[in-house]
Amino acid sequence: MFYISDSLSPKQPWIISGQRFALIMSLLNTVLFNGALYAYIVSHLDILTFSGLMILASIVILVFTFNLFFISLLLLITPTLLKLLFVITSLINAVALYYMLSYQVTLDITMIGNIFNTRTSESVELLTPTLFIYVILLAVIPSILILKVGVQPLNRLKIIINFVIALVVTILFLYANASGWLWLDKHAKILGGKVLPWSYIVNTIRYYKQQSKNDKPVTLLPAGKFTNKQKIAVVFIIGETARAHNFSLYGYARETNPLLKTDDILVMNKTTACTTYTTGSVACMLSHDVQQSGYEPLPSYLHRMGAKVVWRSNNWGEPAIDVSKYQIGGDLIAQCHGEDCQFDSVLLTGLEDEITSSSQDKVLVVLHTKGSHGPSYYTRYPASFEKFTPVCRHEELSKCTSQELINAYDNTILYTDYFLHQTINRLQQLHMPVMLIYASDHGESLGEEGLYLHGTPFMFAPKYQKEVPFIIWRSKELIQLQGISNADVRQTGEFSHANIFHTILGTLGMQSPIYNKELDILHTSKQQKIP
Fold first, then answer.
1. Domain match, 46 and 92 both
2. Are 165 and 298 contained in the same domain?
3. Helices in 45-128 by DSSP H: which ranges?
4. Is residue 453 one of the residues assigned to a domain?
5. Strand pairing class (15-16; 150-151)
6. pLDDT 10s digits, 70-96
7. Whether 233 contacts 391, CB under 8 Å
């Protein structure tokens, strides 16, 4: 079928024809770097049937032809450029394939965003000996061999003919297997996110195109005003990677919330996160309308309307904000004392004074925690909180037993319970109207269905990545001011990140055209008390 009859020179065994070089490169890309793609197909198809085998064959041929097309184009320009790109992409492919196989990652636009927004300290946690083995076997060795190969003067006509023949055969094969198109269409998004190197090349372009739109100046929200001069504070705690399934407050068999259960809190019913990744969920939490982007986020809006807004972060991923004071954990550690100053509790340093010293009547403090971020769950809490043992101490989570992994994760929830309880205790001492509102940005997979961590496309993500804890605590002074007890709060239906913006606005007494009382949990409850 293909014009690969050019004989090799016996004196120069490493010199081959251009068309043969293109075929070899296409085969290498198709075979070496698409194990995650083929594994997904095999796990979702019965390949022992004729139709299943045909679908698998169709995808393999399609990937090969796609590679051959672009490789032939590059080869027509210059073999040197093709070799250089192979070295670069093989290195990226090896790293990508490792994470795709180890954590069931899909390189869609969402995951690309997560990668570009990951801090170096978090990336280091993901470096493992197995990763370096992947790099050596799939990138270093093949690259050395490719660089040693010489390419004869190109017969561009033969290269074009080879590609045309391959394209025609592929089209005919796909039409012959038209019965499998429905399956391909159903799984197209995930399949596209697993084809290397095209998944990350295409989605990187899409990500930066999206970012260029997001970098435009935000649209200011319509002006509002506070309806009273009463001093009121809200502390909004953004959790990280906490899933409701492992909170005993939500029925988990283990006691992971021994302290919070003693507090007079509202535990909101089933709450669904906006996304399965931090940047998207945090932006959603701070938005007046989760379906829109490009608008002024909550902290900036309240600051512009005259409130004191303090943002304290032990994490990352918030949108561009304009606030009264922005602090990271490192800014506070010098004034913090105790073993947990290396953890999220550092964010509580001087919290009471930050609120009481404010000359503004309305105060919003946002604490963005590190929470239960993986894969190094065992590093997210002090040693004294290692109640559930033995724990997973591998960054390669598949090397741990399921119980070791769950133990480490549950210890992070136990520490979150302590952190929230400590915050409530501090706020109680203020003897003023104050609310604590806590919600996690997204959940986490701990090996269920072969998935780990988070970031799975929302449509396909399991409930563990989407269902999050949502907790509200109010001081007795605020309860009296609002005139609604915890027993009156309506717990029908479900909740989401969309409730946060409007519940905070309502609590602070903000009158604004963008305030939606139907999404304000406390306002809605006040109007519809339970008999």
1. yes
2. no
3. 50-77, 79-103, 109-116, 120-124
4. yes
5. parallel
6. 887 787 778 888 888 889 999 999 999
7. no
